[in-house]
Give the backbone structure.
Amino acid sequence: MRIFLSAILVILPDTLIAATALDGIWVLDGPGTESEILLTEEGERLRIAYDLLEDDPSLYCTPASVARIWANPGSRVEIEQDEEHILISYELFDLRREIPFIKSSIADFPSTKNLEGTEFAQMGSSVAWYEGDRLIIESTNHIHGYIRTSRGIPQGSNTHAREELEVDGDILHITHTYTDESLFEQPLILQYSFNRLENVEIERYNCTDADYDWFIELNLHKEDQT
């Protein structure tokens, strides 16, 4: 809950406690879960056309989607808040996601940049607010990307994403819901848990373009043995 006074956002006491609990550095605890993925004809066409060795945006230091960045094993995530914004710093690709606390229209520009200032519309344009102890983030204005890069599960310009973040002790629970009638027959729901880390910092990732040559060579070696 929020009230506005003289155009300044005021966080009520219960929300302030939730905000304090959410602040800190977190790391993914396991792969999480996902609902059944039912793609439309267009969604299935995009999935079939996807080539991991060519189309994975990670090869070019580009985030494929918000879900892909949250789900990266071992990468730290720092959450900081003030009266007007939430800043989520992802160690992966040195991404910085600045989201305003406004439950109104979503801005047209991307919420995420890297440390060099490059914007990434794959992460969408977002706004945030609190519902009780839960932080809600809604995102639209995505460009084509992949929610699951291992299987080519797509997102597009009509994709709407909702993240619900809630802290229980030193565990952060995230429920991430994707809806897009052009791609999904039903909402795609992802759930993750994160552990709080103490006495650590977000490190520079310093990404450089990669490739899957190692993967190709490994499989060629296996084929030679069969």
Remarks:
- The chain has five helices and 15 strands.
- Residues 72 and 198 are 19 Å apart (CA to CA).
